[in-house]
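ESCALATION

Customer reports they have been waiting on this structure for their group meeting. Please prioritize. Original submission:
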Amino acid sequence: MKNHEIDLFMNGETKIYVLKAQPMRIKKMTSAGIRSLVLAGLLFFAAHRLPAPIQEVPESPTPKPATPKVRRPSKPRPAAQVSPAPQTPSPSPQSKTGPAEVTISPADQAAITTLLSEMENRWEASVASHNVSMVDSLVADDYVSVSSAGKVLNKTELLDQLKKDTNIYESAAIENISVRAVRSDFAIVTGVTREKGKTKEGKNFNRSFRFTDTWTKNAGQWRCTNAQVVKVSEK
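Update from on-call: job pushed to the front of the queue and completed.
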């Protein structure tokens, strides 16, 4: 351009163009000249458009490293004291089998066997002779028995049955007697009685019974406390 000058200077990194108008020497310009001048200015600025200003991005602050939390060691709890389990005493041999049996010497066993065998024979002889008082002396007051007919008898009922017996005995004896002395005051006797004779009506009988008698010694006296009788045979 003849009548214009362009100055270039730097503002940082931005180039700025300045169009300086020179004093117009021509006093009058035509309208076409004015349009040419404006168009030239627009084309110049379009060709040299100023770049958009660069926006500065603020720097993000560098994060500080997190300070690790230090846990205070907890106070150790005292260990619970466990009381020892009570020890169960081991059972003695006696507790496993109940009360210990009193040892009977051979001499005591023989003496008890002889005595109770004699008392059993007296009892059977008293039945044959109808001697109720003898049976009364051999039987304890709390005597209980089961008869050969399956009837439960106490002492009074047993004596009443003997009083009502009207049989005539030819013989009455005990066989296969066995005495077991459990203690010095307790024994069990087993055996078989055989009775032979006639009834009141004259009918013959020949019968046998198996018995189990329990004898107890109280206040120095042996008495029969329990009995059980089973009929074996009868002819």
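Sent to customer with the following note: The chain has a mean pLDDT of 78.
Escalation resolved.
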